[in-house]
Amino acid sequence: MIKLYDTGVYLVNGTQIIEDPAQVQQMTGRAVTQEEAAAQTMAYNILKDHNTSGNMERLQIKFDKLTSHDITFVGIIQTARASGLEKFPVPYVLTNCHNSLCAVGGTINEDDHMFGLTCAKKYGGVYVPPHQAVIHQFAREMLAGGGRMILGSDSHTRYGALGTMAMGEGGPELVKQLLGKTYDIRMPGVIGIYLDGEPVKGVGPQDVALAIIGATFGCGYVNNKVMEFVGPGVEKLSADFRIGIDVMTTETTCLSSIWKTDETIREFYEIHGRPEDFRELNPGAVAYYDGMVYVNLSEIRPMIAMPFHPSNVYTIDEVNANLKDVLHDVEQRALVSLDGAVDYSLQSKVVDGRLYVDQGIIAGCAGGGFENICAAADIIRGKYIGADAFTFSVYPASMPIYMELVKNGAAAALMESGAVMKTAFCGPCFGAGDTPANNAFSIRHSTRNFPNREGSKLQSGQIASVALMDARSIAATAANKGFLTPATAMDVEYTGPKYHFDRNIYANRVFDSHGVADPGVEIQFGPNIKDWPEMPALPENLVLKVVSEIHDPVTTTDELIPSGETSSYRSNPLGLAEFALSRKDPAYVGRAKEVQKAQKAIEAGTCPLDALEELRPVMAKIREKFPEAGEGNIGVGSTIFAVKPGDGSAREQAASCQKVLGGWANIAVEYATKRYRSNLINWGMLPFLTKEDHEALSFKNGDYIFVPGIRRAVEEKTDVIRAYVVGDELAEVEFAMGDLTDTEREIILKGCLINYYRG
């Protein structure tokens, strides 16, 4: 079904995978160097077109367009304003699809929406009101274009199927673009995704995506690389099908994605009234890839990603045939994911030897596409979900899709079955919509199934769980009144109705400045919108206290700063910080604040030892070896240790919340994603790496670590950072920071991106 190549390969004429360069020469009649062939990928050429450095090893990218939603755009614009923003230099689209309900926290959600509208007017942007479209569907319909690059502050910013290389990053990277600066990275590796064959009836894009995620995530095969989709199987897929696979590439931890384009994608642009935005993309005659994933579409069957990660994949048939073993495996994984905070079992979901599901949801940028919902309607037409516990909700990804579903009867078929049709909203994907009952099991065509992404709260003794599936198999399960069923088990005639896009819906409702700023507009602030607190520059020496220690194999962004109702405070840096690590380590905030007292005393010109009494013996021990460490040359703050932090969301708050609580560093074995590491750096935090075995660390939670000469080490690009765990003696420990650009070093030295731009 899926094969990962052990080495780099050549792709000849877009169809033949060749491992031996000598064979390439025989086929083409000339020697082709690896370097020459690497420049023939679609990814290389799009990056080259957007690179301003003149050096293809060290890229400095300027994007064509930017996009954010209402969890992130307030913080981004506030940061940019504090750094000198005068006008949006490129089209910047502000969507309102995460806090659309305006139901939690009083006026604050709609306050943020009005902030976004007035900023779009003042700085020359685009404002998409709530319920019109989820961020990524609007981008597909209105922003994507062949050969373009889009940067978004949401991790699922992926429009590769339409020929657009898109990346999801933390807010500070968008701030840089708003201030006319660049996105600086080393040239990423490019991994070919060779699609062959054709999906069988009943298999949908989520099935293909989950199969690829299951094969690549655990081994890091595409981590921080570009996935380039090629091969004869591409042309067998509709535009919606390709989009559905593409959006899920984020869950492999890749950097971005790009697909070859053809007449199918040309038709997509024509349907959306933008034929001029199509561009045919193909790799060159001989293209070199750093790796290759061969996918036989014909062999893929309906898949399910069991809790609590999109890579925990099985075929649905496997689950049904081996229920006891699979559920036991999930429960064992839960011991790690949930830290034993609640009792967790799925055994009660087995009814008469079958797995009973409490809830089905088709939603968002992954599931809410036109073809997915039409297929679901075909499956359930004439059937009903029953009057028991099982519920079924469908969220079209945009109002134009919703209108077409109403016109062609698909919405009626779904509603007649007992399904509830809802407006475009991302809530089910991050825990702010359709939260199931305690101990309930939900199947969703959405993007993630991390713990608590469905809205339950471990700290309140609540736990529900989510499995990811394709819309077709969710509808098949709904048709069987909640008993897990693959779509391939249903005898269905898929109608495949044609899509008609009505752009008047947006023309009549979306505010578009067409790039014209109006400086006279006053920004509308709500009482919850707060400025960032002052942040000090990196001191000469650092005293760090470890205030959280996490040994899970991977720590998600959601575990660092929960999603869901906490997002009501996303415009209030100090308010949001109160939730940091609340579902993983509830004592973290209190510990961090206690340490922060010492730094605040330093900034106020008073004695930090008076503010934090436990620091006295620590400083006394430090001064035995470093007598010069003391007044005027030292900073005090907190740090956390996690094995592999930062998987998942691009939300910068995972780092900024630590920073406003006095965090100076993270310590990790590795960072799960480039975007999380960038968030740390942009908030002035040191991205320390350790080579120590995480189960036998030389430091533990509650320990102090002294880092002498850290400022000089950053300035001088020191490879090895020598630090000392403070105990009865000073025990030396070594850290590294990995590759840092000169700009990143300067940001760390200044204390954060805001300080860097203030000068």
From TrEMBL:
Which molecular function GO terms apply here?
Answer: 4 iron, 4 sulfur cluster binding; aconitate hydratase activity; metal ion binding
Q: Name one GO cellular component term.
A: cytosol
Q: Which UniProt keywords apply?
A: Iron, Iron-sulfur, Metal-binding
A Gene Ontology biological process noted in the UniProt record is: tricarboxylic acid cycle
Q: Per its UniProt record, what InterPro entries does this chain match? A: Acnase/IPM_dHydase_lsu_aba_1/3, Acoase/IPM_deHydtase_lsu_aba, Aconitase/3IPM_dehydase_swvl, Aconitase/IPM_isomerase, Aconitase_4Fe-4S_dom, Aconitase_dom2
Residues in Aconitase/3-isopropylmalate dehydratase large subunit alpha/beta/alpha domain copies? 45-475
Needed cofactors, names only, are: [4Fe-4S] cluster
Tell me the protein family, please.
Answer: Belongs to the aconitase/IPM isomerase family.
PANTHER family on file: ACONITATE HYDRATASE B, ACONITATE HYDRATASE, MITOCHONDRIAL
What's the protein here called? Hydratase
Q: What organism is recorded for this protein?
A: Mordavella massiliensis
